[in-house]
Every structure is written in C-alpha cells, then in structure tokens.
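ugh ok fine here u go
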Amino acid sequence: MYPAGRRATGSSPRQTRQSRAWGQNFLVQPAVAEKIVSAATLKPGDEVVEIGPGKGALTECLTRRALSRLLLIEIDPELAELARRRFGAGPRVEVAAADFLQLDLASVLGRPPVKLVGNLPFSSAAAILRRVSARPELITRMVLMFQKEVAARVRARPGDAGYAALSVFCALWWQIIDHFAVGAGNFWPRPRVDAEVLVMEPRPPESWAAGRRALIEGVVSGAFFLRRKLLRNSLAAYYGAAPAAVERALELAELPARGRAQELARADFLRLAAAVERVGLA
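structure:
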C-alpha cells in the first residue's frame, strides 16, 4: 500500500493492479531512503514498524541496522509476499499483510514504544496520521513521508493559509523535530507533486488532556466545522447548542467571541475543551 522501492538498472518496477488503485509511487533513490532511515536515529535493540515496505527501499536500509525487530505492514498482497521473500527469512523481520488503518497497533507490537517509518500513500496519509495519533504513547519517534501539501498542513501554525483541523490534531500530540523535501523525480511512477518528510516525537503526556482525547478532538472538529464562520457559530452548529452557551465557554477559555478557529493555538484549544466540558456542551 505504502510506496517504497528501488528501480533495477534499465527497467521499471512492475506496478500491480492494487498499487495503481492505491496510488502508490515507489521511491527509487537509495540516498533518500538512507536519509529517511537516518532521521529515525535508530539504536541497537530498537523495534521498528514500517508502514508499507512496497518494493523495499526503506526496508533494505532498515535491515542493515541492529534492530531487535522489524515489522513490515503492507496492504498489497503481492508486495507483502515480495517482502517475505526478500526480507522475511531472518528472525528479526516480520511481514503483516494488512491494512494499517484497520490494524490494532498495540496488539502487534513487541516492546513499545517503537519507532515508526513509512513512505505514506498520498491518498490516505492524513488518515494514517490520525490513526497513530490515537496512541502516541506506543511510539517514540516517527519519520513519515507525505505529499508536500499535506505535510504543509500538518506543520502549519495559527494564521497560516493551510492551518486546519489536521494541523491542530498533530500539534495536540506531536512535536515536529525536523522536515525535508523530496522531489517528485525520486519516485516511479513520477507523481505530479513533490513530497516532504516529517520527523515527529510525542509530546510529554498531560494527564488532563490524555484522559479527554475525544472531548478535545471533538472541540477541534467543531471549531473547524464551518470553516468560514466565526468560532462561536461553528461550535453552536456542531454541538446543536444555543449561541449563549458557546459564548460562555469562549469567555471561560478567555477567547474572543468573534474569533476564528484558524487563529487558535494548541493551548487555546485545550482551554476551550476544558470550558466546553465545564458548561456541558459535550
């Protein structure tokens, strides 16, 4: 499912019917693969999960490290079988032919927290990020490749043109340590857009926030529910609440009644979630 691979000299990697359907673009530049794996700062004994080994460019680099375990999760049955034949002979490498979005990550990990590496499909990268964000305590570092525009939204800050719910969902649970661009010419077939790699680590746990994940993410969804509307109107529509109750929550959170979601930082959303809970909106 998740593109990564090396092109043989004078040939092109065969694209399966499934890979075309899933929008895969295989990485064909070994130097880029090495840079991605190096960004994971792997140490002897680390456990690593690779989302979508594809043709194996990242996997080849990972198998050269002294890992305790390498779990490859691949949705494409043909590519999963390819990974088994090429990398699965040793005791440290395991291949799971599965859809990452349907997988209970905690159940397949050996000794969490682990490191997560992957060249994500452009079509489902945001959904995968939301999925791993549900259990940040299982991960110690992520090095993930996204479509450039998606990566820009993920790391956008309040007031940026691309700042959206996805930006906040990431900021709630992750710190972006580093990022670097990967040109479209490093893939086959060549995509229409460039890619970008984000290096992320989980934020220090906050007991209040960790215990109210659904509440907080609901407030974020509500704030961006009517993107072009004032924050109070968007929240009122999302919760089906009276404007006065929403204005009371905004007052308690020390936020302007005529503010907009695009102006709020992570700390603002946490205060707003506490206020929403206090006034009984959620």
